[in-house]
Amino acid sequence: MSAVIVLLLRRRRRGREFPRPSTLxxxxxxxxxxxxxxxxxxxxxxxxxxxxxxxxGHGVRFDEKWNDAHYAESQNFFPLHARCNADVDLxxxxxxxxxxxxxxxxxxxxxxxxxxxxxxxTEGRKKTHA
Length: 130
What we know:
The structure is a single chain. The chain contains six helices and no strands. The two termini are 43 Å apart. By secondary structure, the protein is an all-alpha fold. The longest helix is centred in the last third of the chain and has 35 residues, at 95-129.
């Protein structure tokens, strides 16, 4: 959302031309910071003790057997999970897709910035040699 707002404001100020590479790199950084924020929000959902978070914080039964069988899944850095049992995950469902979308947006912005920078550089060299 913040990337779209910045692009609209820059376009209104500079006309209808495509944004400069530096603007796209800045938007890439914003997207990565938003992805990191979502990741930390998802990581912090379980708290320090998963059993206490499930039973006392959310009122959900903690299944010890299920947790023992699937413990490694909850220890991954991505995708984020903090499961109390087979049915309840404390990490909201929107966290993992949002992280993926923001990282893909950052890669697209960085690729576009690189393309524009190379194109600007090569066009500048053609003008000086002509």
